[in-house]
Design brief:
Helix content: 25-40%
Distance between the termini: 13 Å
Order of helices and strands: EEEHEEEHEHEEEHHHHEHHEH
Number of helices: 10
Strand order of the largest sheet: 3-2-1-4-7
Shape: globular
Largest sheet: 5 strands, mixed
Number of strands: 12
Structural class: alpha/beta
Strand content: 15-25%
Length: 368
């Protein structure tokens, strides 16, 4: 049986799998990302996976950025000792395989296009809305990577040239309005405080769509895709859908003995919005409108037909997607822009690993 090695690298977890040409996982493993000596942990993970199955013919890597495809180097924000780290070369030396690299959000888009919510679409924009906002574009079945590998970085598209200054140094970036921490920040600045009903004692045991924790076996990472367009609900670890929304872990107040502390983050904001809190609803309306502006602009420029939204904030469900559709209906004008379909991710944390596998299959097409 022919397979490829897929690798997904984030600030809190490493994942690897052997994946066949149909997208089925033959074997897989995950482990936490260590604070130091990440490459040794990754090497052990790769060895564990490759010793458990047939020899792979190529390797695909999805990694948090920034990255530089020309040199094959990465500088993930959440991996402090990887700055200009030659990841592609190191994996190629370790495995002896032809190796291809892309950003994790680009792999998310490619994975959803191959096996997820975008399977019936020729062109797709994938958006990961979490602590930040990442993105990737697939045109005619091929990922759009760009000269340095940073194409599709839609979180830093400006939707307001007179808007707020972003952490990146730009002005009016989508991320400043629509990421989990910025949704909560704006709500707090406008008088919101989480209600007691926002407490979620089970949150610590659940899985973050953005890849922060994964306790479920990744043997289902690729092979169990649902029908395209099926929304993925939040759920406990091991469920198909995203369960956590990211945000600043700011207490709304001191918790009394025996009480659950309520964090003023995007999780609490989503729960309060679902309960009808006016400020929480306004925060999601504001964030959704920024996302809609970015989606309409991207569709006008690249004629994407489908937008798949994942990341922790997508777990908010209709609290996010209903105002997003309303805003898109308002800001989109041209018929081909208005025709864009917005869908929720159905692969969740599995999408980036699926995309890494597809990258490898593009490098070494089946039956060659």
């Amino acid at each position: 049986m022919t397979c490829v090695l897929a690798i997904d690298i984030g600030g809190t977890k490493l994942a690897a799998a052997l994946v066949d040409e149909a997208g089925s996982v033959l074997c897989s493993a995950t482990r936490p990302t260590p604070r130091t000596d990440v490459m040794s942990a990754l090497a052990a993970l790769i060895t564990e996976v490759t010793e458990s199955g047939p020899p792979p013919v190529a390797a695909g890597i999805g990694c948090a950025g920034p990255l530089d495809l020309a040199t094959g180097t990465v500088s993930p924000v959440n991996i402090a000792n990887w700055r200009g780290f030659p990841l592609r070369e190191e994996v190629q030396k370790l495995t002896g395989l032809p190796t291809v690299l892309a950003g994790d959000a680009q792999c998310f888009a490619l994975g959803e296009h191959w096996l997820g919510a975008g399977r019936d679409s020729a062109s797709l924009l994938g958006i990961v809305v979490s602590t930040g906002i990442g993105g990737g574009i697939v045109l005619d079945g091929a990922p759009l990577l760009g000269p340095t590998g940073n194409a599709g970085h839609v979180g830093h598209m400006s939707i307001d040239p007179y808007g707020e200054r972003c952490e990146c140094g730009g002005r009016g970036c989508v991320e400043r309005y629509s990421s989990g921490p910025n949704l909560a920040r704006w709500a707090l600045e406008n008088g919101w405080s989480p209600s007691a009903s926002s407490a979620d004692p089970a949150a610590a045991t659940r899985t973050d769509q953005a890849g922060t924790v994964e306790t479920a076996s990744t043997k289902e990472i690729v092979g169990a895709a649902q029908p395209a367009g099926t929304p993925e609900p939040a759920g406990p670890a091991g469920a198909a859908g995203p369960a956590e929304l990211p945000g600043p872990a700011e207490p709304a107040g001191s918790a009394g003995a025996g009480r659950t502390e309520v964090k003023a983050d995007a999780r609490a904001l989503a729960r309060d919005a679902a309960a009808g809190d006016a400020i929480a609803l306004a925060a999601f309306e504001r964030g959704a409108r920024a996302l809609a502006g970015m989606i309409a602009s991207t569709a006008a420029a690249a004629e994407v037909q489908t937008v798949v939204v994942g990341g922790g904030v997508s777990a908010a469900g209709k609290v996010l997607f209903e105002p997003l559709q309303r805003a898109l209906d308002d800001v989109a004008g041209l018929p081909f822009v208005r025709a864009v379909q917005v869908r929720q991710s159905i692969l969740g944390v599995r999408a980036s690993l699926a995309g890494a596998a597809k990258l490898a299959w593009r490098l070494h097409p089946p039956h060659t």
